[in-house]
Amino acid sequence: REFEAYKKEKKLEELHRLIGMIDHTLLRQTATKDEIKKLCAEAVEYGFCSVCVQPVYVSACYSYLKKAPDVKIACVVGFPMGENKTETKVFETKRAVLDGANEIDMVICISAVKNGDYAYVKREIKKVVRAAQGRPVKVILETSLLTREEMVRAAECARDAGAAFVKTSTGYFGGGARPEDVRLLKQTVRGSCKVKASGGIRTAEDLLAMEAAGADRIGTSAGVSIAQSLHAGQGTQQL
Length: 239
Description:
The chain is an alpha/beta fold. It contains ten helices and eight strands. An eight-stranded parallel beta barrel has the order 1-2-3-4-5-6-7-8, surrounded by seven helices. Helix 3 (58-64) links the parallel strand 2 (50-53) and strand 3. It is globular. The two termini are 20 Å apart. The relative contact order is 0.13.
């Protein structure tokens, strides 16, 4: 009986760890204030790591989560295209910090990658990292639009510029996160920063596949159904 209780406790700890990897995301331009309030309540209820929202809703999340400091507020910057001027991304970052953001998810300049201008990519990330004032910056590479070599070079830029995470996708273009891309990013950064998988992650099986590939954080708008599935024991054969 003691052994069975021990196994149950360990399984529960693993369940909480997996659910705690989730950035509970709502980035639709049609999102309402009531939906954002619900997003925050769900993050508290299920124990998600953060809520990830557009800049216009950071201050609202800050208000809703005042009594839940364990739930972080992540704000997207340069989203979803990444083609803003660096000064615009820096301004967005500073404003998000003022509004209460704990983390910044920025999209790199994809055209700079395509032009082979990695000095620009690295310089821009450094400026956003500085503007975040010590808050973790997750650098979105949009892996579905990049070649393997471009992915590696962009991840190296993020790593060397002081990013806390490299992140696969916005979810707006291409196929989103793939386990093989997560593995490649993990090998590239070599522990100097973490890896966030996002885009197309809708099931417990998806989450487990990304975690097995090396993802440290998961971005998804399906956090509630994934958490419920994990609690129900679906997709948890690996636990």
